[in-house]
Amino acid sequence: MTHPLLSVEALTMRFGGLTAVDALSFEARAGEITAVIGPNGAGKTTVFNCITGFYRPTEGALRLTHASGATYPLASMAGHLITRRAQVARTFQNIRLFAGMTVLENLLVAQHNTLMPNVANGLLAVFGLGGHRRAERAAIEKAKLWMEAIGLTDRADDPAGSLPYGDQRRLEIARAMCTDPVLLCLDEPAAGLNPRESDDLSSLLMRIRDGRDVAGRCSLLLIEHDMGVVMRISDHVVVLDHGRKISDGTPEQVRADPHVIAAYLGEGDEGDDAVTEAAL
Amino acid sequence: MAYALQQLINGLTLGMIYGLIAVGYTMVYGIIGMINFAHGDIFMVGAFLSLISLTVLSGLGITSVPLALALTLVFAAGIAGLYGWTVERVAYRPLRGSFRLAPLISAIGMSIVLQNFVQVSQGARVKPMPEMLPGGIKLLTEDNFAVQLSWMQIAITIVTLLLLVAFTYLVTRTPLGRAMRACEQDQKMAGLLGIDTDRTISITFVIGAALAAVAGLMFLLYYGVIDFYIGFIAGVKAFTAAVLGGIGSLPGAVLGGLAIGLIETFWSAYFSVQYKDVAAFSILVLVLIFMPTGLLGRADVEKV
User: Fold this and answer.
1) Who among A100, A126, A175 is closest to B169 (CB)?
2) Do B178 and A105 touch (CB under 8 A)?
3) DSSP assignment of A34-76, as one string?
4) pLDDT tens for residues A40-93?
5) Which residues of B sit within 8 Å Cβ distance of A?
6) pLDDT tens readout for residues B7-38
7) Alpha-carbon dihedral B151, B157, B161, B162, rounded to 10 degrees
8) In this predicted structure, what is the pLDDT of residue B298?
9) Co-location of A208 and A257 in the same domain
10) A79 and A146 together in one domain
């Protein structure tokens, strides 16, 4: 059942003389939540940027395997094709909603490829031709399901920028889910959330993993500093430090790993200590 | 009173033409943040394409005026769209990610290229065009002054309004328009949601060029003369209109176009025709000083 969905093989990313990620290998399995953790500057976001096409890795391979058996070499694909063909979606540390567009529109933009398969179709839509109305109705239905799942149904027509922070986070996840991903990459989804919002988020992520009460289902890969969230929801944790993998296993295994404790308490920056103290 | 009413009609018609061109400026600015200085010259190319098309059609013996105009509209908009696409592909896309001034300089270069191309291929002399839609409605007569609403003015107004409604619908209600707005706000994020941003930008240029070509056809029919240089002045005025309305804002572009058309017409009617351009551009200067974001533009408030 759990085939390796994403395999990262000897991934290396250098910026000039700096090696941000050094021969990193790990796997994220289908149907699981995989967390990538590590002190600040460990290279977590760089890994994400490689997976989603923002960076071209210096060396190594990133292979995504669909349930159908089709594989995609993410390292050599253009950004919009990674979303469209390989079906990988992501969110960012800082929220990147289209603030001037409504909640509903944000969810519709994410369904762009089903709504507008080609240019001619996009132009025909002006006249309501080319099956546009039907496609639009289906897209709105799907958006409605997601708005329900994140509890924003009555704010559908408000600009996304006017929502409270926690709602924006969940909307961003819903928007990413509207692209029908097989793998959703979340960069610090719990950052800046209060305990209640962070509980809501955890439950949303687990529902997405299990396909419970939500309109879609996919595997998740997340970077997170909030160890409470990580330990509660992850099936599998990968720990990075200075661009290398220092531990890999279930939350319990990782928590007990002396390398991890050393990385967090021993040689980290000031900021990291606070994180670890809160976490352990 | 009658005189002023006549000027109002003339000014609004002229404003419609400026508005159509201004939409192209404002759209391109919105989506990639550059001023496409070659846009005015696309308008000029559109006017020449219209002239060529009308000449060929009359040579083919097509005497029905509405049919000839409709065919010309499609032809000019289509070919000008191709010009717009090519300009973006050749002169702007390779410079994306370069420093901000690079595409601007490239745009000025494209403007000169298009002007010279038309000057060489079509000749530098002014091209006349016989009136196609003569006559009109006499609205009222006062002190021997008859207020005329010509068929041409009616046609210009109707076509412009139809195009603007269709275009506004496209931008606000269709997937393509949503993709454009998404690219406008955050191109990288739009790409991550599966939108082909390069293609969306290309389409924006094509649509802007097609609208400019329609404006070119109207200009040709309204004034009856064109030359290779009309793109410069009309382009700068339409740009003024876009800035006046608030660059990046679609209704702003139309509003700005109407304002420039009215200012120019009333100035010519009551003060001096020679200084009409001075009046229009003085407005630009005043707006830039006192209302840098224009009538409908919104200021960028940076959150810290």
Assistant:
1) A126
2) yes
3) EEEE-STTSSHHHHHHHHTTSS--SEEEEEEE-TTS-EEEGGG
4) 888 888 998 888 888 888 988 888 898 888 888 888 887 777 878 888 888 888
5) 166, 169-170, 174-176, 178-179, 181-182, 185-186, 188-197, 199, 203
6) 999 999 999 999 999 999 999 988 888 889 99
7) 20
8) 66
9) yes
10) no
The parent domain of residue A100 ranges over 96-179
Q: What residues in B contact A125, CB-CB < 8 Å?
A: 170, 174-176
Task: Say yes or no: A42 and A64 in one domain.
Answer: yes
- pTM to 2 decimals? 0.86
Conformational region of residue B169, where left means phi above 0, alpha means psi within -120 to 50, and beta covers everything else: alpha
ipTM of predicted assembly, 2 dp: 0.80
Q: Which of A132, A154, A179 is the last residue before a domain boundary?
A: A179
Write down the pLDDT at residue B110. Answer: 95
Task: List strands edge to edge, sheet with A88-90.
Answer: A88-90, A183-187, A219-223, A33-37, A236-241, A244-249
Q: How many independent structural domains does chain A possess?
A: 2
Same domain, A9 and A27: yes
Cβ–Cβ below 8 Å for B181 and A98: yes
Shortest CA gap A113–chain B (Å): 7
- Looking at residue B97, its pLDDT comes to 82
**Chain A interface disruption, residue of B170, B178, B296, most A CBs within 10 A:** B178
Is the model's pLDDT at B56 over the cut of 90?
A: yes
